[in-house]
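Subject: Respiratory chain complex assembly or maintenance protein structure
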Amino acid sequence: MHPQLADHLNPGCIDLADKLMNCHADHRWAKFLGKCNAVSEALNKCLGAEFEVRRKQQLIEARARKALFKEQMDRLKDDDAQQRAFEQQQASGQQRGGA
């Protein structure tokens, strides 16, 4: 059994989904004996292929987001290190001047 197919998520499989629904409607009892299995298997292959395409695209996007996040974190660490160095320099200058 297939989940509800969204046209915008599965544009390449719409025709196969329609064929399967029509087969089920036309062969109410024969569908239980395997009349629509060929169409169902073709739809499974199509959905699997589209899933792989989406998975690969999401992997590329996730790696780009991860690289951006790492770059931002490195920049924050550098800023923190510079801030700490500045504060230490200010503190040591105040100790010398105050003593």
